[in-house]
Structures
1.
Amino acid sequence: MPKSLVFGAFVVDLMARAPHLPRPGETVKGSIFKMGAGGKGFNQCVAAHKAGADVVMITKLGRDNMAEVAIKAMDEAGMDKSQLLYSDEAETGITLIPVDENTGQNQIVVVPGASATISTEEILGIEPLIKEAEYILLQLEVNQDANEHVMDLAMRHGTKVILNTAPYSPVTDDFLSKAYMVTPNEVEADSITGVAVYDLNSASRAAKYFKDKGVKHVIITMGDKGAFVSSDGKEEIVPPFSVNAVDTTGAGDAFNGGLLTALLEGKDIWESVLFGNALAAVSVQRVGATDSMPSRQEILDMLKR
C-alpha cells in the first residue's frame, strides 16, 4: 500500500504565451502554444512523485483522446496508474491558461469534466487505500460530495488530510474541521476567512479562523513573500528562494507536492515548508505545470542555496 494519496482532478493544460494578458474583449497574438498534463491534483502528485514520495494518484478521466495525455505523462514519470477511474459519459477535463511572457503571471479557466463526476461507489472502492495511507492530499477541483466522502473515510481510519483549498469554492465548517492541515494561498484565505492576507499579522488573523474550526496546522502561501505557518503555538513566515520566474503556473501545486513529500519523510512542518518552497522555486523557472516539476536532486541543489 502507498504511504500517501493525492485525490483530485486531472485536466489537459492548454497554455498560450503572449506579450500581455488579454483585457475583456481583447484579442492578443500569442507566441507559444503548449498542451500538457495538468490539474491541481495531478500536478501535486507528479511533484511529490518526482521528489521521491511514495504516492498514488486517484483521479477520473473520460474515454477520449485527452485521457491519453494523462497516461503518457504517468508512463514517462513511472507513476502507478492502477487507481485511475473512467467515465463513459463525461469528457476529460481541460484548462485554458494564457501566460504573460514578460511577467510570468497567468489567468486560468478550468473545465473539470470527468473529474467532477466521481461517485460514492468509486470512493468506496478506494477505502482500503485511504485506510492504509498516512496522508491524503485534497483540493477543491473535483465534485465536493466526493471530497467530503473521502474526508469522512480518512477521519474514520485516522488518515491525515492536507486540504489545499484551491480553486476557491465555499466549503462547510464541518468539512474544514476534519482537515489536519490547510494550505490556501493568500487569495483563497481571504475568500474563506474574510481577512485580506498581506503580512504576518493579517495571516495570523486568517489562521485563527481555521484554527477555530478545528484545523491543527495552517499554511498560507503568499507568493514572493513566502509561506506563513501557524503550528503548535508558533507563527512565522518562511521566506521564498529568490529566482527569476518564467511561468508561475503550478507553483502552488509544486509547493504542496513538496510539502507532502517532506512530511512523509518525517520532517517537521518548518522543514517541510522549506522543501516545498525549494520545489516551487525550481518549477517557476520553467514553462508549464506538470512538465516543470523538478527531480529530487534539483530540489536538494536549491536547498543548498
2.
Amino acid sequence: MTHSNNFAYVSIVTSKNYLVGLETMYLSLLKTGTKIPLYTLLPTKLVKDNCETVQKLKGEGINIVEYEQSVAIPNALVENNNANGDNRFNYTFDKLLIFGLTQFDKIVFLDSDIYILQNLDHLFEKPHMSAMIAGKSYPGNEDWVDLTSGIMTLIPNNELIQQLEATIPIVIEKKGSCGDQDVLQEYYSEWTKHPELDMGEKYGIMAGYADYYEKVLGYNYSGDINNSKSVAIMHYAGEKKPWMQHWSFLSVLKQEIVLSLCKMTGLRNTKQIHLEYKHLIRKAKRRIGVK
C-alpha cells in the first residue's frame, strides 16, 4: 500500500483519566512498525489543566488537535443517561467531531482503551465506515448486528457532523439514554446490509470475552495479519480501565514473573496479553509522568 501523507490514525480523549490509556495505546501502535501518525483530539480546557502531561504526549510523537466547541446534547439526554447509570456516555459524543477532520483524506479511528497487537495500516484500504461488531460471537449476543464505534475507517466530511447531530434527538426518542455509538448505528442503519464493511471481530476482541474467544472459538495471538482469528486488537471496554487500578510492588513483581514464564513457553495466550498490557501501562505512566 502507498501511504498517503493525508492518512492519519485518530483518537480522542475528553478526560485526564484517559491520558495514560492514550499513551499506552500509542506505544502499542508504534510497536507495529507503522509510519502513519497518530492525532488526538483534546478539549482546550483539558490541555490547559494538564499542560505538562500534554507536552510530554507531544514529545512522545502524538499530534494534539485542540477543540473548544463540544457536540451539543440536550439536557434531557444528560438526565436520562444519569438516571440509567450511563453518565459516562455524556462525554462520548465529541467522538463525532472526527468526521470533520477534513485535512485528512482518510482516518482510522482508534479508541484510547485498546491494545494493538498487529500492524493496522491495511485498514486504510477499507471503504468509508468499515467497522466491526464487537462481541457478536459470545453467547447471548447472537442478535448483535450493528457496528461498534471503537475502531473505524472513515472519510471525513464536514456535513456529516451536522447530520449526525441531527440524529441525536431521533435516538433519544427511541432509546431514552444513548451514546455516540447509538447515534452512528441509527444514522448508518443500512450498515448491516453491507457485509463488506465488517472488518471482522479480530479488530476488537472485548477483554472480558477474550478467554472464551481463545479457548472455545479458536482465536489466537500468532500475529498473522491474514488469519481471521489472529487477534489484532484487544479492547478494554467498560467504565473501569486497567490503568486506573493500583498495583502494589509485590503485585507488579508477580505479574512480571508470570509474564516471563509465559514468554518462555513461546506461545502467547490471553493471560499473557493482559499482562503485556499492564506492563505497557506502567511504561506509559513513567513516560508521561503519571503515578
